[in-house]
User: Fold this.
Amino acid sequence: MTIAIIGGSGLSQLPELKVTDKIIVDTPWSKSPASIITGELNKTNIVFLPRHGDSHTIPPHKINYRANIWALKKIGVKKIISVNSVGGITKLMNPNSIIVPNQVIDYTYGRGNTFYEEELENVKHIDFTMPYSETLRNQLIEAARVIKLKIHKKGVYGVTQGPRLETAAEISKLEKDGCNVVGMTGMPEAALAKELEVDYACCGLVVNWAAGKDSETITMDIIEKNLKNGLKDIKQLIYEVVKNPY
Ligand code: HPA
Assistant:
């Protein structure tokens, strides 16, 4: 079982997954153990972890990112594909687009964002120049080509604290910083995976125009409608990527 999918908003379940087990993993990072689903998808054994919980009740700033990544590492996961819903900032990032970002900017705070905190023999700094695994990103890009799904092959994912959406001025600032999309769950997940040397790539589904990028107010209705549409493509992409190791 080497590949894990971390499901984001709207992806608390993978209906096509033939569930074989639910694994409860104790970690040093949480009182309650992380629960992880294992199963078969397209004849490949995979692990599925819904980041917001089975019934989508854990908000982005309350997710125990350390426990999740630690648990995946502990059961032998070598690759993580993370699905994140995001808002579109730059021109081409309209709702229903899919992006496999190659860079991230972290605007979050107060989240447990490292495993290197206590009882250290020495201070450790990981290289995070390239936050995502290029190998895994290329597998996603190749899978998209095979199924003829148009995706954005790179871009910058700005990760905000949430749970509120941003102000228009905040989005202008993110745009000036170079962000193409904005979401709330991409960090510290990517950095924690890197700390534990697990390959990690993100698959971002644009579910709304970011604040101030459209005249409409951002409503949960808009987000949910776009999620429903876009997740069909995301699922196709996941099914393809797990089918072939490339
Ligand atoms: N901002 C932050 N996170 C998000 C958004 C957004 O506009 N859409 C989906 N997740």
Strands lie at 3-7, 18-25, 34-41, 44-50, 79-88, 98-99, 103-106, 156-159, 181-183, 199-209.
